[in-house]
Amino acid sequence: MKKFNITISREFGCNSREITRMLASRLGVEMYDRDLVDMAARKAGINLDEFADADKVIDSSVEKLTRRFGYGSSSKFYSDEAIEAQSQVIRDIANTKDSAIFFGRCADYVLREHPNTLNVFLYSSYEARIEHLKKAYSLSTVEAEHLIKRIDRQRHNYYKYVTGVNRSDRHLKHVMLDVSKFGEEKVVDILYHIVMMEFGE
């Protein structure tokens, strides 16, 4: 199989992290998510200790979940040093001999001209997103709605600040899939077969 890079961006609440884990496992490649941010933070000299508690345990409170998922919520990540460090870490990993999957972190934009890269965007109906969050984190409907609005706004603002374009802009995406239409396992199947067709030898 050819060396490849996959970037997966998403709407909040469609269980895309689990989908990405499943795909990475099936393809036998490394998935980069929060560890990528940690590497970039160290490179930029940012202290992430204040975010550690939110990342260790999933708590049902909306505030802790906002800190856990809203990586664009801190002004520290808007600095030129942090943005360049994260971009450089992504490029460094993408340039190794091993294939990789990048989850979020504006990787689709950073690797927009990189060869053998597949940019994926996952989304779901608003109702499905609410139901997933209610079930996964024991939230009320009101809490789930509030969390979706906050996280989507933070991620949109961060992506727009870094890239200058909207997060769901189709011109940076090669594949866009509705998780609520196909279901998580079928989305993994679809993406796996696309990778095999595109990069298999």
Description:
This protein is α/β, with parallel strands linked by helices and 201 residues long. It has ten helices and five strands. Strands 2-3-1-4-5 form a five-stranded parallel beta sheet, sandwiched between helices. α4 (62-69) runs parallel beside α8. The longest helix has 23 residues, at 141-163. The chain is globular, with a radius of gyration of 16 Å. 35% of the residues are buried.
Task: Give the key terms.
201 residues; single chain; 5 strands; five-stranded parallel β-sheet; 56% helix; alpha/beta
Layout of helices and strands:
Elements: E1 5-10, H1 16-27, E2 30-32, H2 34-44, H3 49-56, H4 62-69, H5 80-94, E3 100-103, H6 107-110, E4 117-123, H7 126-137, H8 141-163, E5 175-178, H9 179-182, H10 184-199
Parallel strand pairs: 1-3, 1-4, 2-3, 4-5
In a nutshell, what does this entry contain?
By secondary structure, this protein is of the alpha/beta class. The chain has 10 helices and 5 strands, in the order βαβααααβαβααβαα.
